[in-house]
Amino acid sequence: MLPYTRKVFDLIQDDLARFETRLARELRSQVAFIEAIGEDLTSAGGKRLRPSLAFLAGHLLGAPPEASVQVALAVELLHSASLLHDDLIDDADTRRGRDAAFRRYGNVVSVMSGDYLLAKVLGLLADADEAEFTRLMSRTAAQICEAEVLQFEMATLETFSFENYLRVIEGKTAVLFASALEGVALLAHAPERERRALQEYGMAYGRAFQLRDDYLDLLGDAERLGKPVGSDLREGKATYPVLLLLEAGDEELRAILRRHARGEDDVARVRQLVRARGADERTRERIKQEVETALGALEAFPASAPKRHLEELARQELERLT
């Protein structure tokens, strides 16, 4: 279950249970390795945050249950496909506490299994039979790919900028959040104002989520996180607090980033610099701004339990900064 307050998900626990059943059905294959990867995806579970957003949007809008399920499945399968490919690109060792798929089954199986998931997404889009939803998912998939390549390009060419960083976190995270919400609005034929409000909420919440995740990767407690800190630095990625120092002309930090923090004390030094120069506080302030933007978008809707749950999800990004 999600590392969030349980009451947020009381409203949608039955939806999530049905989702897991449908997801297992979608992932069935007569090919043993693909079946095994599908079983890993269902048994590992993960946060299921994107499907949860789809179901909360469904309750908020009074959408037909099947519409929410179709969106939840399409978004989660697209997300899972991107993770299979990302792990290979990043040469990751683990995913959700287990060996990454390509470590167990090899590159070919991992890549083709990711493509298999994308093929399943196409089938779900055909079943939904809604051109606007298909176009939305097409744009989302394209942005995910662009963000992954841009992130690699930034590390390779050192084209670090806030503009590029925001494009990356929007493409890797926020567009999937927004699509989970907006997709339901499309299938429910919600008014344009409500659709746009949910899209804005999803983008702002997604940015806050990824900013917080990046913040903890550098400044969090390794024991509480259950993984070492500084992985972004070791991959040559400049996240928001690091960009703040680069903007100020910190050449020591640029050198550490250029060598992918391979020095024994490099990560500790960056943590020290970020805190000493107030980049940690400025990053927290940016997260707060994104949360406020997300909450403001929800003002388009009257008070309700689904709206309160969406508000609480956004607010909790401010509470999870340790």
Structure overview:
It is a single chain. By secondary structure, this protein is an all-alpha fold. It has one domain: Farnesyl Diphosphate Synthase (Orthogonal Bundle), CATH 1.10.600. The protein contains 16 helices and two strands. The chain has a two-stranded antiparallel sheet. A hairpin with a 2-residue loop joins strand 1 and strand 2. The longest helix has 28 residues. It is globular and about 55 Å long. The mean pLDDT is 89.
The total tally of domains equals 1
Quantity of strands, as a count: 2
Distance between the termini: 20 Å
Largest sheet: 2 strands, antiparallel
Question: Which stretches are low in confidence, meaning pLDDT under 50 for 5 or more residues running?
Answer: none
Order of helices and strands: HHHHEEHHHHHHHHHHHH
- CATH class placement: Mainly Alpha
Give the integer mean of the pLDDT values: 89
Q: Give the name of the CATH superfamily.
A: Farnesyl Diphosphate Synthase
Beta-strand residue percentage: under 5%
Counted by DSSP, the helix tally is 16
What Rg do the Cα atoms give? 20 Å
In what order do the strands lie side by side in the largest sheet?
A: 1-2
Helix content: over 70%
| CATH fold-level topology | Farnesyl Diphosphate Synthase
Give the second-level CATH assignment, the architecture: Orthogonal Bundle
Shape from CA axes? Answer: globular
Kindly name the structural category: mainly alpha
